[in-house]
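We include this case.
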Amino acid sequence: MAFFTRTPFGRKKRPQSAVSDGLWKKCDGCKQTVYQADIEENMQVCPNCGHHYRIQSLARIELLVDSGSFEMTHANITADDPLEFSVGKETYAERIGRARKQSGLNEALVTGMARIEGVRCALGCMDSTFVMASMGSAVGEKFCRLVKDAIVNKVPLIMISASGGARMQEGILALMQMAKTADAVRQINEAGLPYIVVQTDPTSGGVFASFANLGDVTIAEPKAYIGFAGARLIEGAFGIKLPEGFQRAEYQRDNGFVDEIVTRPEMRAYLGKLLRYLAPSADKDLENYTPEKEEPAMATAASGTEEEA
């Protein structure tokens, strides 16, 4: 019989927690432990600090539009691989296939026609789960066709941006979409129709430098990252120290790049008010409109601050 025993190296097994996995969440904003259901009920916004989590495009559209009013368009437009690009052993075509499985979408931009509080509009929403909502030829084409839909139907265009920039796998073809989409904005301006942009986290790179920064009215979610180049790149290139909160929504608003910061629970009502003011067909659209009865989202720290301000 051995007199001594050796304890195996490694972590000791801890007793299993009585709390189920996924029941609680540590907030990325306030670092507090929050009940997961409270975040979900509050439109993926922390009820303690107002931190806005990223959400998928279809979920966001459901929060904004009148029930059953969204009709998806141009879903058949998908990315091609003209450059036969690959990163390591994965080809661009394989990367797109993986993104489709992960997101359930064909591309990074979802487009369609909808109503918000009774008023018709053309609506586009980018999805960061699809290759970080990067802009390639398909995204540029879908945006341009959405602009044409708005012009033909004589309705405002609302664009919800969220992107890491141009899609590197398409090279110069992706960069060309900046000029193409900017020209599409010119067309809707000449048609005399409102173009409203909602910038969400993150809106950067070539998307920020084109259609996401050309709206008649520009709205942003709180603390969203908004800018062209990253802060570290700018500091390294110019040898300067950037101010606190640089390229966040609040900084952009204070410097004139954003008109208003609106929390997610308040976004639908805010857009509805804008459409009633600006949409050419608003009076006609509202003739037979009956407001939907909805339970208000719980109050957040962020929305309380905005009201006090």
In short: Residues 1-20, 302-309 have pLDDT under 50 and may be disordered. Residues 56-289+299-308 form a domain with the 2-enoyl-CoA Hydratase; Chain A, domain 1 fold (CATH 3.90.226.10). The first helix runs from residue 36 to 41. The chain is about 35% helix and 15% strand.
